[in-house]
Design brief:
This protein has 150 residues and is an alpha+beta fold. Helix content is 19%, strand content 28%.
């Protein structure tokens, strides 16, 4: 079974009221919060939807959303698998400045998470430490924001 995961990950707690207003979920993951992002806006046009890298959600709109949620430093991650080895892409921002180039590869997400402060724990990598492994198939990623933490 395949999965598609696209999210903002940042040190929490984030602004709950802003998340509700934007229809987004803030998923608590220890000291961090995961913000699942919706499907690619393929037909959307305008400068806010311009792709900044190969990550589907790496757009000016996402950077503005992260700021509204109160995240100054955050990882933008994307993982997909459909029966094969899958792909991982990630980048890190500090405000509007990209501090880790957008990368693709098996260690891309772990590198990004570690750069924002996620410490691998108990023999698990950063991805597993904050619980992303268990979220790959979660309905939470398509709930329209009803699982907002807080």
């Amino acid at each position: 079974m395949g999965h598609e995961l696209s999210a903002i990950v940042a040190r929490g707690p984030g602004k709950v009221a802003a998340a509700r207003r934007l229809g987004l979920a803030l998923v608590e993951a220890g000291a961090f919060v995961i913000v699942p992002l919706g499907a690619d806006e393929e037909g959307a046009q305008g400068p806010d939807y311009r792709r900044l890298s190969d990550l589907l959600a790496d757009r000016p709109l996402t950077l503005r959303v992260a700021a509204e949620l109160g995240f100054d430093r955050f990882a933008l991650i994307q993982s997909s698998e459909s029966g094969g080895p899958g792909t991982q892409r990630a980048t890190v921002y500090h405000g509007l400045e990209r501090t880790m180039p957008a990368r693709e590869g098996m260690a891309a997400i772990n590198d990004a998470l570690e750069r924002i402060g996620v410490l691998p724990d108990a023999g698990r990598d950063a991805f597993e430490t904050i619980g992303l492994g268990g979220m790959r198939h979660a309905d939470l990623f398509h709930d329209g924001g009803s699982a907002v933490a807080g």
